[in-house]
């Protein structure tokens, strides 16, 4: 049974997870209309990389095993027995009438070598077997059964289909085509436009949006998100194509203003209370009048973000 404080903490975490689930469902998005949150399909390249990785390990382990066996007498095998809270180790001799021999603490290195030999022997067999399985899979693998079906149906027929899985490009386009209620600009608000003509609320948001476009990270501007009784509009909602979920980016650009700063922290608390946390599916950036956005750092950050979300930088 959990102690009082831990129990309260566990209940709070569970409630936060439930609120987060509700927020995700309220957010809409095509990830809620397909089975699960399918990740990117396994491709031939992934299988080939696994084969190369396993072959490299197999060659290294085989070499190390051969060297270790030179230090072990023929037929020697390690035997372990429980002894109180510890173990006792013995040498057994296969194919002989010799009994087992106790390995004392002073000779524990002998037991380690025998254990390592057995580990390498089992691993080489398993690696060799898995390499054969992967090579066979490579010969027969379609790459993506959903794409295969699409490629092997006429366009006229496929246009009538409601697919249970979209490939990355189609999924991304469906996500970008979402219809949502946009937050209105106040009268006489300054005009800030990105390179592709999207109106935003600040020069810094222009910089962020243009860099996201440059790195080909899909985003939606100020899409509403339900957090409990609150509806907020994250500055940027990004698509994590690897996990097929949304990531939210808030830029707080006037942190030297006391009222703005308090509202910013209130917004952060609302995210946290509903199960959204920094370094999970949230990104915070901040600036003040004296400490503006560092575009060099921002570029590096977005480049790393692109890789994490599953986008190749051209």
Folded structure, characterized:
This protein is 46% helix and 16% strand. It is of the alpha+beta class and 314 residues long. The protein folds into 2 domains: 11-40 and 171-309, no CATH class; 45-140, Helix Hairpins (Orthogonal Bundle), CATH 1.10.287. The strands form 4 sheets. Strands 6-9-10-11 form a 4-stranded mixed beta sheet. Helix 8 (258-273) links the parallel strand 10 and strand 11 (282-286). Helix 2 packs antiparallel against helix 3 and helix 7 (203-214) packs across helix 9 (295-309). The longest helix has 33 residues, at 108-140.
Explain the layout of strands and helices:
Elements (H helix, E strand, L loop, with lengths): L3 H23 L17 H26 L6 E8 L2 E8 L7 E3 L4 H33 L4 H7 L3 H4 L9 H9 L15 E2 L5 E2 L2 H12 L4 E3 L3 E3 L2 E3 L3 E5 L4 E8 L5 H16 L8 E5 L8 H15 L5
Parallel strand pairs: 10-11
Antiparallel strand pairs: 1-2, 2-3, 4-5, 6-9, 7-8, 9-10
